[in-house]
């Protein structure tokens, strides 16, 4: 039997742990808070997935070394901006030969590194063992066993297949891919685009507006990805347009909901106070924009979102800014 260690007890980490368990994988989870660990050992995670019973075969601990011992697959499911600090404490305990899976969708502030690059640098993990899982994977729906598909990407396709086999169930269908760069960037940039779509929703704008933002956001994502060596076809698949649609259109999306509150006139601080959480795109919009500037690329939607987050512009002002940009060929 395959054994997996899932480090992180948030909504997606818990939902993926449940999927692994349903696929017949033995799962050990690590959590920072004893309260979360106790809930998981009691068969639930009311803090993040209320009302959902977890499958048998999942055990949790606050001891990361114990969770990692003997794991064939290590799943990293912490907030992207905390990965470096967390992984520094875990690196010596990572089992040799284990696949190291990133569920995180972000670009590191300051370094502009993708999560797989942080794993390689801090964890000392070879690229052929680093796997990225991304797609239209709203955690609550997957935890309720609603059918979904995803991409399992790794430079070594045999390793990708190994992870896909460990999480494939009747409701979760993983596809393999060798494009780690494109898979990661699709997951990171879509959070920024979802903030913009949420702002449009909050301002009362319709489906034409939201579809336009989604489509142009996809164009920005693909331009950045291709510049960094990604396969452009990746952005037409589950890790690209699939994840983008789910995150931008679902009320379950934290990024879309955060943007919606901004569109209604709330400040970032006010939204955080009301929701008691910060959406991933609020931080990663700056690192995505910095990455684009390093490569001399224009990303006007990301730039507009960052300006709202920083309090430089209001959502209403960025509408005028984006609509008044010089017109050009669609594919430029």
Describe the model:
This protein has 332 residues and is of the alpha/beta class. The chain folds into 2 domains: 3-178, Rossmann fold, CATH 3.40.50; 182-323, Orthogonal Bundle (N-(1-d-carboxylethyl)-l-norvaline Dehydrogenase, domain 2). Helix content is 50%, strand content 14%. The strands form 2 sheets. It has an 8-stranded mixed sheet, with helices on both faces. Strands 3-4 form a two-stranded antiparallel ribbon.
Keywords:
10 strands; 2 domains; 8-stranded mixed beta sheet; alpha/beta; Rossmann fold; N-(1-d-carboxylethyl)-l-norvaline Dehydrogenase, domain 2; two-stranded antiparallel ribbon; 332 residues
Secondary structure topology:
Elements: E1 3-7, H1 11-22, E2 26-30, H2 34-41, E3 44-45, E4 49-53, E5 58-61, H3 64-68, E6 73-76, H4 83-90, E7 99-102, H5 115-123, E8 130-134, H6 139-143, E9 148-153, H7 157-167, E10 172-177, H8 180-202, H9 207-227, H10 238-249, H11 254-263, H12 268-275, H13 280-294, H14 300-309, H15 315-323
Parallel strand pairs: 1-2, 1-6, 2-5, 6-7, 7-8, 9-10
Antiparallel strand pairs: 3-4, 8-9
- Termini separation: 50 Å
User: Which strand order spans the largest sheet, edge to edge or round the barrel?
Assistant: 5-2-1-6-7-8-9-10
Profile the largest sheet.
8 strands, mixed
Give the low-confidence spans: none
Number of strands: 10
The gross shape turns out to be globular
Helix count equals: 15
Helix content: 40-55%
CATH homologous superfamily grouping of the largest domain: NAD(P)-binding Rossmann-like Domain
């Amino acid at each position: 039997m395959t054994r997996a260690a899932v480090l992180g007890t948030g909504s997606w980490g818990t939902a993926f742990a449940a999927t692994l368990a349903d696929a017949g994988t033995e799962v050990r989870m690590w959590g920072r808070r004893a309260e979360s660990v106790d809930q998981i050992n009691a068969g639930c995670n009311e803090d993040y997935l209320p009302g959902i019973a977890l499958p048998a075969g999942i055990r949790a601990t606050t001891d990361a070394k114990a969770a990692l011992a003997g794991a064939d697959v290590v799943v990293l499911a912490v907030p992207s901006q905390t990965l470096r600090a967390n992984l520094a404490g875990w690196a010596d305990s990572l089992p040799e030969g284990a696949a190291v899976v990133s569920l995180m969708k972000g670009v590191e502030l300051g370094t502009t590194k993708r999560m797989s690059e942080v794993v390689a640098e801090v964890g000392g993990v070879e690229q052929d063992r680093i796997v990225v899982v991304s797609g239209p994977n709203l955690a609550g729906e997957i935890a309720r066993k609603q059918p979904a598909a995803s991409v399992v990407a790794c430079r070594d396709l045999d390793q990708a297949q190994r992870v896909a086999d460990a999480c494939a169930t009747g409701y979760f269908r993983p596809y393999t891919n060798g494009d780690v760069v494109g898979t990661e960037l699709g997951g990171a940039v879509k959070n920024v685009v979802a903030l913009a779509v949420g702002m449009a929703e909050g301002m009362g704008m319709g489906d034409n507006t939201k579809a336009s933002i989604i489509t142009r956001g996809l164009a920005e994502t693909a331009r950045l990805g291709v510049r960094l060596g990604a396969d452009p076809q990746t952005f037409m698949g589950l890790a690209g347009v699939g994840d983008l649609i789910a995150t931008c259109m679902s009320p379950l999306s934290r990024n879309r909901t955060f943007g919606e509150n901004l569109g209604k006139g709330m400040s970032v601080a006010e939204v955080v106070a009301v929701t008691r959480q910060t959406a991933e795109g609020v931080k990663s919009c700056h690192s995505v924009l910095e990455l684009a500037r390093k490569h001399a690329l224009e990303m006007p939607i990301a730039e507009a979102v960052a300006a709202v987050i920083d309090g430089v512009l209001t959502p209403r002002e960025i509408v005028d800014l984006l609509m008044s940009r010089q017109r050009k060929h669609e594919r430029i």
